[in-house]
# Entry
Amino acid sequence: MSNPDDSARYCTTFDALCQPVDPFLDQHERDHPPHHREKLHFREFVRSLVYHFVKGAESGRQLLTDIETAAPELELDEMKRSTFFDAFQRFPVAWFAALLTFVLGTVVWQAIPELDALGKLYCVDGSLFPAIASMVWAEYTSKHQAIRLHLCFELNRMIPAHFLVDTGNSNEKKALLQMLETGVTYIADRGYLSFALLAAIAAAEAFFIIRAKINLVYTRVERLPVNLPSTVQHLFRHVTDQRVRLTNAKGCPIYRLVSFWVGQEQYLILTNRLDLSTFQVILLYAYRWQVELIFRFLKRSLNGLHLLSHSKEGVMIHFYTLLLTALLELRLKQQCVKCYDALSAMKNTWTGGEAQGEIGSEERGGLKPRRAGLCPMDSTKPIGWTRGG
# Structure
């Protein structure tokens, strides 16, 4: 039940956005009392970084200017440029890691029941963020510097679950090995295909759905039944489902291989999940695109391409608060949908379901909040990541 003082405390949209982090920041202030001469406290630094990504500022300097002109109701304190940028070195990265972990663990994220029934599902991929030439530690090519964000994106609740930040030339397969969890199904594109990686995932008692290259060498062990709903059969051609032995891999392991054509392109999907139907394997691989959408959201909608700091520690803080802001926005959107649904139900109760009234006219006018990206035809699913954020 909400506190009577909540309406006064969270009087702006920005306050409501930051509400999930307030309990952590309150406890943090009790555990780490600010020094009386400290000009920028941890709470104010976190709020300013969240405001940076929400506002879409193009640089730290632009953020400081935006804060100076921000509405007083936002309670964003003005700060000197040196104070702001020094904070990336003064505040430990571990504090931001603990804050992100707190939000992931305490907020009740809406799940998609149909995906939950298939177990925990992670889409994995990496994405480059350009760096300036002076960031010599961010190695990419002989002429360019870059940072690579390795991300495990949970499909069940559509939230970033784990991530690693490394140099632009870092290996995506090695990054995935560092993030392996027992019981998780990892969905990835063919860039992750490695016989050693598949063996490591299986050894960790985890699962994979990974696209293989067309030149995969194998022998068939067993044909499996192909089950496709009649409504989608026209989308796929030459669909086969079989257990195969990888003759070029160490130990010649036996996995499941689903093959099909879409248009002029052939797809080979390797998996060690024998409990899924043919269509479920195809569909889960198609859902891998969600991780591409979250990268687009982080880079474009939140303007995360512009690094706020050029040190290793500062870059880590940048990505922790970038993902934190994405989670806060998702939570706020889901809260808005809940309120909208509650108002719709209340309106239907008042009118006996006969007249839609104002809320119904909003739906007809296209003002109804956008819903799940994963299941666009089912309006009961939680908000997802779309191209527009």
Remarks:
- Residues 245 and 251 are 10 Å apart (CA to CA).
- The longest strand covers residues 121-131.
- Residues 354-389 have pLDDT under 50 and may be disordered.
- The radius of gyration is 24 Å.
